[in-house]
Design a protein that fits this description.
Layout: H1 8-20, H2 26-51, H3 66-88, H4 97-108, H5 113-125, H6 129-142, H7 151-158, H8 166-170, E1 173-176, E2 179-182, H9 188-213, H10 217-246
Antiparallel strand pairs: 1-2
Helix pairs in contact: 1-2, 1-9, 2-7, 3-5, 4-6, 5-6, 5-7, 7-9, 9-10
């Protein structure tokens, strides 16, 4: 009843307060925050599609082309390989030069934006430096335009339940003197929507750091250093985002 009529950020703020006060558990916090963010992102993606239909996507009934089917199969394949890596943290499937060429091909082909967005998010997350670099360049060229900020892409990037890549942080920040600030090409309303998602990811980094601190030997030092670096980056981004919407 307390949440009736509240916006998503307001709901998440209230949920966060309840968690801090011990009124709900961490699992309840994760469940409802992820549920609401997922619902909002789907709604925004639907609205964005309606507002910005691209050529070839205006038909009520859209028959998938051979290219689109091929792209979806390829994206699903990359997703499966990433899922397998995240499940056991063993050596990931090493992408071939042909795999990288396939990604490059699909990113320049006339495909629905939803497919390209999913491919970019996977490409930023996949443990392959070549793929990360290719997708980072593409995001800078296509997803950071001051007159068209692809909100569904940024929401998809930040709502992930497993791992948000450090590239997501770097792509949103800009160095200003000795500090980092949100790049002014981002709309404040989008940053307001992303802040609760960033908070959730930051809290997950805190949990990961505590796990790393429980390890022994050389592995502990390596993991603590890496997790601390990630946590610091998420905190910098979160502080910059909060300052940005206040200005």
């Amino acid at each position: 009843m307390q949440m009736q009529g509240l916006s998503l950020p307001e709901k998440l703020d209230l949920l966060h307060d309840w968690k801090k006060n011990g009124e709900i558990s961490q699992s309840q916090f994760n469940f409802f925050s992820n549920l609401w963010i997922s619902r909002m992102s789907k709604k925004m993606i639907g609205e964005a599609v309606l507002m910005r239909k691209t050529v070839g996507e205006n038909q009520t009934s859209h028959k998938k082309s051979v290219l689109e089917c091929s792209a979806e199969r390829f994206v699903n394949q990359i997703q499966s390989r990433l899922n397998a890596y995240l499940a056991n943290r063993q050596n990931p499937y090493i992408l071939t030069d042909n795999d990288i060429d396939e990604v490059r091909k699909y990113l320049i082909k006339p495909l629905p934006r939803s497919i390209k967005n999913r491919l970019l998010v996977l490409g930023l997350r996949y443990p392959d430096k070549r793929l990360n670099h290719l997708c980072e360049i593409t995001v800078k060229e296509q997803k950071r335009h001051p007159f068209f900020m692809d909100a569904p892409f940024w929401i998809m990037l930040w709502e992930d339940g497993n791992l948000v890549p450090m590239d997501a942080v770097r792509l949103m920040l800009k160095k200003q003197g000795e500090n980092y600030v949100i790049d002014p090409i981002f709309d404040k309303s989008l940053i307001s929507i992303l802040i609760p998602m960033i908070e959730i990811q930051r809290d997950k980094e805190i949990t990961r750091l505590k796990w790393a601190q429980s390890l022994d030997g050389a592995e502990r030092e390596h993991e603590v250093t890496r997790k601390t670096r990630r946590l610091n980056a998420f905190n910098i981004l979160l502080n910059a985002a909060e300052e940005y919407i206040k200005a």
